[in-house]
Design the sequence.
């Protein structure tokens, strides 16, 4: 059965009296009652409800059902979608008794765009940042007239037709593409898939950021094709790279490195383990006529950073933007070791009085811990740190207080002097 179609009819306007429509059938609204002892998290606004926090579900629910959640004392908590096979069993869409239907999704998308415009976004932005936009497990990136969607929970995935329709109504886009080729969907009983959600179009597009141009491969690039979250941080290297010899590791499509060249670096070398990324970085440098300053090379950063410092190579600025190293709390130590190691190797390549530009993109390593890791690396490298900038992701990825996984990116610039 196509639940997406079925849900177009969706919840009845009188849903606040206890019914909703699924697949053309009128259903009794499912009531989820929480245990007496639950995490303060939920009352404080966090939209996730874990299976072990639920007392009763009446009548029985199947993946994707809309449910009303009540506290143990029968006080209304919120309305959301359920997936009995998922550890995060319910994700709340609203704290009101409002209908979950096409209009609901239209209003959410419209509201998210109005907010982005208000804080200064015009062309590219993360339009929907999941929980931060009260659209749990949904990501929508806007690249000018093109949109990329990721829906990572069953209960949001079935609303894709309503979401696509809302995008069409609000933006009249040139194209919409689905990048649901992410393993996390399997935890929800969803298949990995990617493809057009609009008429087919050329998925190799060009975007502008901080006055530079970048090719973005929406269909085959990493994640949604481009990391919008580092936009302001790329601009933040402006002054320190002037006339500098710069090394960038984990370059992907060369964004930080091309910014460095644009801001007046003498020379820039970018490395990435992926051949594809290096090829795309070279194309991006040429697109901006910065290919004389920028060179890109395929290499494993862990290996070459170590051997280059042994060889006595040195740079004025070293930039690191590694992947998350872990996606689970169980392997957090692995991430800590990875960050410490790569930052230590990076620091050893920085000339006395030069700068390290370093990022971490996992919410599992909180800002405090990240700074401690950098501190440990600096001690091992016998470097004294003077902090220049400590920032987070761009504000189109809003941090909602009380929803800690929305606070995920750390971006640090430090001056390093020999001890
Ligand atoms: N700085 C980029 C994003 C980097 S994403 C930007 O602003 O767009 C992380 C990148 O690290 C990926 O391109 C991945 O291919 C690369 N990578 C992962 N492990 C690596 C390793 N051991 N050595 C070098 N690059 C690596």
Sequence:
């Amino acid at each position: 059965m196509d639940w997406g179609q079925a849900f177009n009819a969706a919840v009845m306007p009188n849903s606040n009296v206890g019914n909703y429509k699924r697949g053309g059938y009128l259903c009794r609204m499912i009531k989820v009652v929480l245990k007496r002892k639950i995490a303060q998290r939920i009352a404080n606004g966090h939209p996730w409800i874990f299976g072990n926090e639920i007392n009763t579900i009446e009548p029985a629910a199947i993946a994707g059902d809309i449910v009303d959640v009540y506290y143990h004392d029968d006080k209304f908590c919120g309305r959301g979608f359920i997936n009995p096979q998922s550890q995060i069993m319910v994700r709340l869409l609203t704290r009101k008794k409002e209908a979950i239907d096409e209009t609901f999704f239209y209003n959410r998308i419209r509201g998210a765009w109005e907010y982005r415009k208000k804080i200064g976004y015009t062309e590219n932005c993360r339009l929907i940042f999941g929980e931060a936009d009260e659209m749990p497990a949904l990501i929508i990136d806007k690249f000018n007239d093109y949109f990329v969607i990721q829906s990572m929970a069953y209960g949001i995935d079935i609303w894709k037709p309503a979401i696509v329709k809302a995008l069409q109504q609000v933006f009249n886009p040139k194209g919409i593409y689905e990048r649901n080729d992410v393993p996390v969907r399997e935890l929800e009983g969803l298949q990995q898939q990617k493809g057009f959600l609009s008429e087919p179009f050329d998925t190799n597009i060009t975007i502008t950021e901080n006055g530079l141009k970048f090719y973005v491969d929406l269909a085959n690039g990493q994640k949604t094709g481009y990391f919008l979250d580092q936009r302001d941080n790329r601009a933040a290297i402006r002054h320190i790279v002037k006339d500098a010899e710069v090394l960038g590791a984990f370059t992907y499509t060369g964004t930080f490195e091309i910014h460095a060249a644009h801001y007046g670096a003498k020379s820039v070398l970018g490395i990435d383990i992926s051949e594809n990324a290096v090829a795309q970085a070279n194309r991006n440098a040429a697109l901006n006529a910065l290919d004389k300053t920028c060179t890109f090379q395929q290499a494993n950063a862990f290996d070459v950073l170590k051997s280059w410092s042994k060889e006595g190579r040195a740079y004025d600025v070293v930039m690191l933007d590694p992947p998350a190293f872990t996606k689970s709390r169980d392997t957090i130590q692995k991430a800590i070791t990875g960050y410490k190691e790569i930052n230590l190797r990076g620091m050893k390549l920085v000339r006395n009085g030069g700068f390290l530009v370093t990022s971490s993109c996992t919410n599992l390593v909180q800002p405090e811990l990240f700074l401690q890791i950098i501190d440990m690396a600096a001690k091992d490298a016998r470097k004294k740190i003077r902090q220049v900038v400590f920032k987070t992701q761009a504000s189109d990825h809003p941090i909602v207080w009380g929803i800690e996984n929305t606070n995920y990116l750390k971006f640090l610039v430090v001056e390093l002097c020999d001890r």
